[in-house]
């Protein structure tokens, strides 16, 4: 993105070109993704991806902040937003603002993301009113379920479709700079995206959204246990990692590693 306010630059992409978003939880991954992304999300999906939890509900704000710091140490180009985890904002607008301030002040990230629509409009307004950028998230809300087996696609009924539109409007009115739309059926997702006045970012939603986001480790093919329908693998790293581990194991056992070139010598001594 251009060298300007990252949130304004992100919003300006709407209608110009598709917006590229991925998750990032660590400094090395952030360094690899940053030149190629408009937004890197420090998502609470790290609960499952990094820590092996069954859901995203058990991660806490302290952990999100640690990973946010790691990502920001390698950020140069992309806007960085941090998920406020379950339990850190729902109780009241005051709680939401306090958590958002911690996340931004302690990491230097550009904004936070919250799940929900009409129900959290006042919470979002409290945060944006304090000058903190907020990204919304409607549709399938992972923080509201106990496991991936409970994930349910939304927008299947007229009432669900109408609620999605109300949620989108509430978040826009609350001042969000973008909205993630997750797990929403077509053509409902297209209709909501077309009506959305801020960038809409799809994940298991419409290609007509302004941009797309995936969990990076899913996109890289690092997991086999559970692959959502909406994921396309742009690489298959899990077999490569396994092959490299096997090769390393064999080299250590056989004595082929380390070799002379990997060792340190006193000055003047020759390698043997």
Number of strands: 8
- Compressed to H and E, one letter per element, the order equals HEHEHHEHEHEHEHEEHH
What structural class do the secondary elements suggest? alpha/beta
Corresponding CATH architecture: Alpha-Beta Barrel
Radius of gyration: 21 Å
Number of helices: 10
The first-level CATH class is given as: Alpha Beta
- Based on CA inertia axes, which overall geometry fits? globular
CATH topology: TIM Barrel
How many distinct folded domains?
1
Distance between the termini: 51 Å
Query: Main beta sheet: strand number and arrangement?
Result: 8 strands, parallel, barrel
Q: Any overview of this molecule?
A:
This protein starts with 5 loop residues before the first helix and ends in an 18-residue tail after the last helix. Helix content is 37%, strand content 14%. The protein has 272 residues and is α/β, with parallel strands linked by helices. The chain is globular. Helix 2 crosses helix 4 (61-72) and helix 6 runs parallel beside helix 7. It has a single domain (6-236), classed as Phosphoenolpyruvate-binding domains (TIM Barrel, Alpha-Beta Barrel). It has 10 helices and 8 strands. The chain has an 8-stranded parallel β-barrel, surrounded by 5 helices.
């Amino acid at each position: 993105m251009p060298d300007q306010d990252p949130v304004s630059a992100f919003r300006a992409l709407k209608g110009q070109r598709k917006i590229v978003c991925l998750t990032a939880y660590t400094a090395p991954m952030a360094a690899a993704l940053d030149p190629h992304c408009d937004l890197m999300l420090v998502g609470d999906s790290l609960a499952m991806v990094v820590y092996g939890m069954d859901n995203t509900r058990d991660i806490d704000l302290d952990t999100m902040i640690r990973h946010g710091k790691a990502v920001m140490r390698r950020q140069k180009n992309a806007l960085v937003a941090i998920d406020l985890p379950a339990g850190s904002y729902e109780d009241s607008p005051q709680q939401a603002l306090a958590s958002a301030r911690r996340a931004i002040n302690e990491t230097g990230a550009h904004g936070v993301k919250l799940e929900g629509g009409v129900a959290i409009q006042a919470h979002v307004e409290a945060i944006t009113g304090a000058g903190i950028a907020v990204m919304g998230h409607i549709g399938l809300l992972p923080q509201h379920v106990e496991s991936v087996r409970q994930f349910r696609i939304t927008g299947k009924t007229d009432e669900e479709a109408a609620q999605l539109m109300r949620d989108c409007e509430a978040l826009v009115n609350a001042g969000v700079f973008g909205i993630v739309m997750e797990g929403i059926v077509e053509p409902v997702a297209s209709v909501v995206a077309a009506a959305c006045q801020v960038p809409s970012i799809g994940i298991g939603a419409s290609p007509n959204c302004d941009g797309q986001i995936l969990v990076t480790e899913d996109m890289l093919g690092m997991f086999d246990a559970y692959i959502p329908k909406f994921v396309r693998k742009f690489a298959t790293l899990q077999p490569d990692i396994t092959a490299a581990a096997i090769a390393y194991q064999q080299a250590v056992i056989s004595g082929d590693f380390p070799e002379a070139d990997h060792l340190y010598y006193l000055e003047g001594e020759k390698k043997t």
